[in-house]
Amino acid sequence: MILEMKVPSPGESITEVEIATWLVEDGDYVEKDQAIAEVDSDKATLELPAEVSGTITLKAEEGDAVEVGAVVCLIDTSAEKPEGGEAPKEEKKEESVKQEVATAPVTETKTYATGSASPAAKKILAEKGIDAASIAGTGKDGRVTKEDAVKAVPSMGTPTGGSRGTSRSKMSMLRRKVAERLVEAKNTTAMLTTFNEVDMSPIFALRSEYKETFKAKHGVSLGFMSFFTLAVVRALKMYPAVNSMIDGKEMLSYDFCDISIAVSGPKGLMVPVIRNAENLSFRGVESEVKRLAIRARDGQITVDEMTGGTFTITNGGVFGSMLSTPIINPPQSGILGMHNIVERPVAVDGKVEIRPIMYVALSYDHRIIDGKESVGFLVAVKEALENPVEILMDNNVKKALEL
Predict the structure, then answer these.
(1) Which residues are bridge partners to 334 per DSSP?
(2) Mean pLDDT of the chain, nearest integer
C-alpha cells in the first residue's frame, strides 16, 4: 500500500511551508513517528514525523515552498525493514570529489620577465615592502630602475594569498519572516527607546539566601526572569497604555499580561508567550520559562505557544550585551531589554560603592505611548527590582517564594 503524506497545518493562517531539511534520503526505510523532515513556516521550524513505517519516496526538494495539504512524500507500507544499515556510499563520495575537482576555480598568476634591480631601486623597494619581481622594469633587459621603484605604489587591496571565498545560501522562511517583521517594525512604528540602570544587589542577596531551598522544593532555579516578569506585570498595570496595541484607528488595551520572552533555539530566536503572567508566582514564572526554553531548544515549540503576547522581554545579557536598543515585536507597543550585570562604582549616600549594575532599555511605540508613560513605566520596573521584598513580595519572602 502506498500512503500519500500531506503537509499538515502548523497553525491558523499558515497556508504554506518550506522544506528546510530532509532528514532522510529517497528510498530510505522509515519508522512510524520518525522525524523525516524539518519544515519552516513564517512563525516556527517544525519537525514532520512519518505517519507509517515503510520505504519513502520524496516528492519535494529542499527549499521548495509546499502548500498545506499538498503531498510531500510517498511511503510504501508493504516494504520490509532491511536488516542492518546501508553500506557506505563510496561511489557517491568519489563522484562528489570528482565534481569538486572539476569545478575548482583556476587562478591565473601574472608574472613579469624581469632582470635585476639597481641598488638604489632595491633600497626603495625594500622600504616600501615591494618585491622587485612584481615590477615591470623599464631598464635594459627588464632591469628595475630607481624611477621604476619610485613610481611603484604598494597596493593595499591586492589579495596576498589569504582566503577570499564567498558562499551563498537561501534564507529560511522563518528568517525571511523575521526580517520582514523587523523592517515592518522600523517602518510602521514611531519607535523610541528610554534607558535606565538597576542596582541588582537586593536580588543578588535574595538569590544567594534562598536559591538552594527554592530549587530543592520546586525543581527550578530562582533566576532573574521571575523578578523581571513580575516587575513588568506591576508596571503594565500602572501604565496600561504600554499594554495596548493600535488596531486601525482604535487603541486595543488588555486587562491581562501575556509576556513574550525571547528564547534562543537551534533555528534562531523564538518568542514563546507566558500566558496570564499576572496570575503567576515566582515559582510559576520560573517553571513556565524553563518549560518553554526546553521546548524551544528541542524544536518542539508550537505556533500557538508563540502566538499573541502583549509585551516582550528580551535578555541580551546572556550573550554579553552591555546596552542595546531592542526592536518592538509588532503589533505590540513595548519591549524591555535586559543586559549583562557588571560591577560598577556608584554613589550611595554620598559615598562611592561597587554595586552589580544592569542597564535596561524600553523601546516603545510613541504613537500610543507618551514619553511620560514610557519613562514612568521603566522607573516602576527599576523600583520593583531594587526593592523586591517590599514591592514584589509584600514583605514576606518565604510566602512569595512558597517555601
Answers:
(1) 364
(2) 84
How far, in Å, CA of 252 to CA of 6, rounded? Answer: 38
Of the candidates 26, 298, 370, 394, the residue annotated as catalytic is: 370
Query: Residue 370 catalytic?
Result: yes
For the chain, what are the domain ranges?
A: 2-76, 119-151, 191-400
Give the span between the Cα atoms of 189 and 180, in whole angstroms.
Answer: 14
Second CATH level (architecture) for the domain 2-76: Beta Barrel (2.40)
Closest C-alpha among 250, 311, 251 to residue 278: 311
Question: What is the CB neighbour count within 10 angstroms for residue 350?
Answer: 5
C-alpha cell at 258: 501575556
Tally of helices (H runs) and strands (E runs) in the chain = 10, 19
pLDDT in tens, 340-397: 999 999 999 999 999 999 999 999 999 999 999 999 999 999 999 999 999 999 999 9
Residue recorded with cell 513605566? 377
DSSP-derived pairing of the beta strands 259-261 and 311-315:
parallel
| Domain 119-151: assigned CATH number | 4.10.320.10
Q: Decide yes or no: CATH 3.30.559.10 for domain 191-400.
A: yes
| Active site (annotated) includes residue 366 | yes
Angle (CA) 303 294 313, round 5°: 70
CB neighbours (10 Å) of residue 57? Answer: 14
Cell numbers for 184: 515592518
